[in-house]
Specification:
By secondary structure, the chain is an alpha+beta fold. Helix content is about 60%, strand content about 15%. The chain is built from 15 helices and twelve strands.
Amino acid sequence: MEQLNPDVVDAAQGVWTRLILFLETLLIPTRLYQLLAVAGLVVVSWAGGRIGSRLLTEWLRTRDNWPKWRLRLGLLINRRMSLICFALLAWIVVLVMREVTWPSRSQLIALAATIATAWLGIFFLARIIANPLMRRVVTWGAWIWVTLHLTGLTGSVAGFLDSLALSIGDLRLSALTVLKALVVTGLMISGARSLSRTIAGRLAMNEDISPTMRVLTAKLLQVVLFSLAVIVGLKAVGFDLTGLAVFSGAVGVGLGFGLQKVVSNLVSGVIILLDKSVKPGDVISLGDTFGWIEELGARYVSVVTRDGKEYLIPNEDLVTGQVVNWSHSNDLVRLDLNFGASYGDDPHEVSRLAIEAAMTVGRVLRDRKPVCWVTGFGDSSVDYVLRFWIADASTGLTNVRGQVFLALWDAFKQAGVSIPFPQREVRVMNDEIAISTEKRGESPVKSSGDD
């Protein structure tokens, strides 16, 4: 059987010895009543926390006009009501006992109160971490470290973790180093995320910067902050990053060949942000997709259509393909409607009625007056085109066309203008002609155009 590392055995024995010594100090006869007092405070705090939580919940439900951050704070307090009650009662007992007796007779209660207060502080401070998993890991790690620190077990536990090491050449990787790296890097990444969100929110409110530059600045800021967070976090715990240079270069070349499309989309996203060809809020048409840009991502552009569908279009398609941007330089869009009127109606009157009907629709612009032109003489009608302008293409094109068509229908119906449609007249011949026709193998039914 393989023998254990002597350093690991010695470190484990040190932790065990320190733990036994701490437990023996708790079992001193002069401290047994303090243990009973702490146990009693736990029971009373649990009961008081249940009652206080119920009362706080009912009170928060009546706070209709409160901002969301206050309600969230109330919910956080509600979740740790028992721990809050324990910390308050323990400190009250400690203060009272220090006034009437020696401080040493309340030392254990004070230790329990200090640990509970530290746990509460960690719980509320960890709320700044947005990621739930990261927040839970940091919270539990901080709780364990604070408990070990206050009980005097930090040094022995740290020595034991440091003895659990793996040596690869000149690199020595211990469990303690890995834990420090995870904690420090996690805190740095959380801080970088909070800082980038704050700066991005400030940039979003700055009207002097174009939307594309806001997005580009926010994305570059995120990349820089997260990169610095990882580098500083690893450097802070003693990692030598110079050895990773060659490895990262090889990995970069491999990723470049294997992820050509991903890299192409990332570069295309930067190009889109720089040349300002599209920006959030623009109305675009790409193939059969018509909608407005909701968000510019690092890999794709989010386009929301009128029916609520959200299309994630790769950035490369916007750079290399043909895109119709209805609001690139301005929001003005011209729409054409084709219709026909009877030859018996005056074309001048039909054009006037069409223009007046279009201007009755609210979305049609008044400062750019609609026009109506004759485009040809068809088989059964005089063909017209009605052209008008709108400034809100993001609210839809089909609906405004439908409103103008309805206005034309009402105006033409009131003025007596007829809208012709193709008709076919069929004649049935008499019986004798039909019989003779059938003998010749011809059809007895002919259209009027064959007469």
